[in-house]
Amino acid sequence: MFERSVSGPEKLTFDDPVTELHVRIVNGTVNVVGTDEGSARLEVSEMEGPPLVVTRRDGVLTVAYEDLPWKGFLKWLDRKGWRRSAVVSLAVPAQTRVEVGVVGAGAVVSGVKGPAVVKGVTGDATLVALSGPVRADTVSGNVEAQSVTGDLRFNSVSGDLTVVDGSGSTVRADSVSGSMIVDLAADGPTDIRLTSVSGEIAIRLPDPADAEVEANTASGAVSNAFDGLRVHGQWGAHKITGRLGAGTGKLRATTVSGSIALLRRPPHEEEGEPWDAPPAAGDGPDAPADGPAGPSGPGSRAREGSEGPSVPAPDPGSPDAAPGGPSGGSPSDGSTDKKVL
Asked: Where is the composition biased (Low complexity) (predicted)?
């Protein structure tokens, strides 16, 4: 059993095993990093107001204010107690179970492989490279999840959710007025369920995708980038339904008055392959001119099609000048019209 009151900047090291971490602070910042080390380290770099109580018992390390319990944490709205602040950094074994609660403070949790729970009243949270199950509950705080491979559950009143390169098998999100932007990079089937009352929902799926899709909005607009899906309803309620690939995964998105957009990742973007369709037959004479350009050939023509010819300008007076003009002057690059954004 270890207990210590920290009222100012201080560093502590815990050599005994730590399997669970509890942090609860008001204002300031908390930063938790999972490491391959067996010990845990704590640094309090700034402190204002009442002291933090640090305890370690039976493998559970707790850093919190004495009057800020975890139970009923989201109801702790006594602003008289907000006159405090702390900047806390912790390094714990990657397999540690982490629980972080913030009131008006920012939280960053990264590199943790164990389960992670984040609760916030008004503070924003950033979750990076978490591989265990993740749960985030906020009142008005925003949550950004980057490269999270574990299952993700999000609940909020007005906070926004942003998922970047998410590859977990499950994403559940519920919000009243917060928006949701979910960018998925999963290799296998995923189960996605997003619900909002007035928030906007945008989902970007891999191409090719594998999911049974049903997206509904009562009065918002819809946008769909997949040919295999159908959009129903011209006025009022809109619905997007259909099957992508084998339909192994599931995508359910519902909002009452918010808009819904289904986007797709460009295929093989990392390999530099073109996004658009093959050039029309009339573009054949331009091929030799674009060939020497190497990787910038097809891609640059799609981007520069509205600005004029993509072939290099011939030297004045050259006998090749005349043939070059008609070939480049005509906006014959139909590939930009076929490009799906």
From this structure: 278-293, 318-334
